[in-house]
Write a structure and sequence with these properties.
Elements lengths: L2 H11 L1 H7 L7 E7 L6 E7 L5 E12 L3 E8 L7 E10 L2 E9 L9 H18 L1
Antiparallel strand pairs: 1-2, 2-3, 3-4, 4-5, 5-6
Helix pairs in contact: 1-2
Length: 132
């Protein structure tokens, strides 16, 4: 089994690792992360940006195929009643892992910069993978 694939799966789904990378602010801090990684299970993650702004994302797991596929709903406490969906596909490529991330049904009025936010967040994951 590709060890990078397994590490990536763990980093994405275990609270102790999520606390090391979640949120797009490089100087931000995860305040809490609860994960029930089961179909129908819920997650809730709160983080604080360096400027003190607190964000909370939560949702429900819709599909889990360990360690390659994950699909779940995504909601912001700050944008009630708007549900988007996140899909992750992980594929082993030699000793590396290819990630396809899709975040759909985004709120067109959202204040969150999704493209920049996910890019900055993924940069933090790459640094964490490199350390392990």
């Amino acid at each position: 089994m590709n060890t990078t694939l397994q590490r990536f799966w763990s980093i994405w789904n275990q609270p102790e690792f999520i606390k090391m990378w979640f949120g797009s602010d490089p100087k931000g801090t995860v305040l809490s992360a609860t994960i029930d990684l089961s179909v129908g299970g819920a997650y809730k993650i709160s983080f604080q940006d360096a400027d003190g702004t607190i964000h909370t994302a939560f949702g429900t797991y819709l599909e889990i195929v360990e360690p390659t596929h994950l699909r779940y709903t995504w909601e912001w406490e700050s944008e009630p009643d708007h549900v988007s969906e996140l899909r992750l596909e992980l594929k082993p490529q030699g000793d590396q892992t290819f990630l396809r991330l899709s975040h759909s049904n985004l709120n067109p009025n959202s204040l969150h910069g999704y493209l920049e936010g996910w890019n900055r967040t993924l940069d933090k994951i790459v640094l964490l993978l490199d350390r392990r």
